[in-house]
């Protein structure tokens, strides 16, 4: 076994490669770019049926009658289901408040609400049969804004509310309200030398993931069902699905299938229950795949918001106070609105030191489309407003906008308006310094290029609307504050099962979690953690399913922190067990087994000085070490419902942007030339993936700044643009260069010192672009997205 002689030393060439801190390649990367990766919409079962959902054509109405007879008589149709066919006494679901019907009953509350289901032998047959279902609606007045929602005689979107938020809201059409009060904002305002205020409007943004909602439900012999689905949180889905099916959770077995993006839009259920219902009714596998039109109605969106802010400052530039009121439109069902309200209120101050604040955030029930989780989660809307306010104050004081922000920037030790102390690095001023110091792109590049000028570099691009006439450059800055992980006392944990054994003469680690890989690269990081902790080069990532404990949601920038922490925790336990086996087998051969700090490196047991004591193959032989453990971050606590005080968040993340735009002031066209970003990531476990996350978040923020908005008719509450023809997202031609400066200041409370990365850049990119457009045009521009008519006044 080669362990009785003198120990050798491990050298650099035999150390384990592909651990944390390296830019290892994604295991799914090549498959995705070559089109060979299997997404959930690609799944197939030999004898499967196709499911289709019939949705309401009106936003608010009583259902007088439903006639399914013609649909049932259609050749190839196996089942047609309505509310009356649901098998359980539980007929609603929801992330926190179970207010969402599986199928509408008695009333529809928003345009596109599911009313009936069809299963047929061909997707076109299912669609045609659904079109034959006759529904008689008696339309009701629609509630579309705060005034109509909170009027004394307002129609209640949900009558007889009994959820725990109903007790403390001033009106039943308010989902949740969170005030935050600290100090005396009125007295501080009286002392201010300068006071500015503004009203801001943030449009409804879609997650716009490219892979549509889809899944395959297969009935099982034990009366249960196996569901293969693209989602963000397997165990949350399971908790909501099983009661509606009337099944225990162990008879609903879920496996993650290929996910084509999420960004919060898959945190709520879409087709999961519907596919299972049809499969159990027909006894056949049922596949549901939404088309793009259906997808716009099949998931929640980012909350549109109206925000009012007031800030004051002394003549030397110190902030004195802040007042704000944030109204989020939650649409017809609660979804994640209560948590979004908590984020919007607690992060509304931004990354600044302000002692005296008076804050209120609410979310409404309306008949608009349901809104819930989306990247940034309430902090995006607030950042847009408070950063516009910072520019207003700087202008009033005659100060440089970056220097003004730096003067008021929070830092480690800052006391937040919630009473929580920031107990890890908060390099806000440094991030602003770095992003401002980045080289600016050359001006009027088309003039330098002469006849070789590329019109794609100009506003209007290939439409060839200008050759530079009327084009003005603008530069803008913004910085944001985002929480990481679940907050407000939620039991935020993840589970990881790690197995180590010898396979084909080589030590192999297998990592099994229920983490949803939605494109963020978690499967890459989990393998890197296992290589680092266990010293093996071969790591297998087991498919995510519900046969292992929950990994929580792939949201809130939490997966690398929390599920990564669980993988690290389980790997450490496996390592200790392996060393225990080694000591039992070989401890008498060398005193270091008992006295030295031992590590696993390069497939061997080594001392911290690099001496090799044994090969892992010899230690394990035929034994396998298999451990499943949960891991939790530090606890948080709920915000007080009157004052908003409480240690509500576990970690904060920060990013700053500088936007460079060129604006055709005559036609109102905008070209974003560059969006530079500086972000503190604590520790970059995979630097390439970190940069990709920052660039992706930046681009999503760009989209809502200049083009993305779901348009809802204020008279009918119907969606006007449910397609990628009319709902525009940035293409490669719209996306600027995104230089990234990564700062690594470790958070000692987090695994490896890391900090959640994915959401922070989505916050500050939007207000940076708006600031740059204001700089170019001199216009106030208090809403997103900015459209040509806002710039031309036409």
Number of strands: 30
Q: Choose one word for the global shape.
A: globular
Structural class: alpha+beta
The residue ranges in which pLDDT falls below 50 over 5 or more consecutive positions are 1-6
The number of helical segments is 20
Indicate the CATH topology of the domain at 431-482 and 651-792: Aldehyde Oxidoreductase, domain 4
Domain Aldehyde oxidase/xanthine dehydrogenase a/b hammerhead: 34-141
Protein name: Xanthine dehydrogenase, molybdenum binding subunit apoprotein
Biased composition (Polar residues): 1-15
GO molecular function: iron ion binding; oxidoreductase activity
Q: Which helices and strands occur, and which strands form pairs?
A:
Elements: E1 8-9, H1 29-33, E2 49-55, E3 61-67, H2 69-72, E4 77-81, E5 92-93, E6 100-101, E7 107-108, E8 114-120, H3 123-131, E9 134-139, H4 146-150, E10 174-182, H5 185-191, E11 194-202, E12 214-219, E13 225-229, H6 234-245, E14 252-256, H7 272-282, E15 286-289, H8 292-298, E16 305-313, E17 319-329, H9 337-346, E18 356-364, H10 379-397, H11 401-407, H12 428-437, H13 445-449, E19 471-484, E20 493-503, E21 506-512, H14 522-534, E22 538-541, H15 559-586, H16 592-595, E23 598-601, E24 604-607, E25 611-615, H17 616-620, E26 625-632, E27 651-664, E28 669-680, H18 687-706, E29 740-743, H19 760-777, E30 783-784, H20 788-792
Parallel strand pairs: 2-15, 11-30, 13-14, 17-18, 21-22, 28-29
Antiparallel strand pairs: 1-25, 2-8, 3-7, 3-9, 4-8, 5-6, 10-18, 11-16, 12-13, 12-15, 16-17, 19-27, 20-21, 20-26, 23-24, 24-25, 27-28
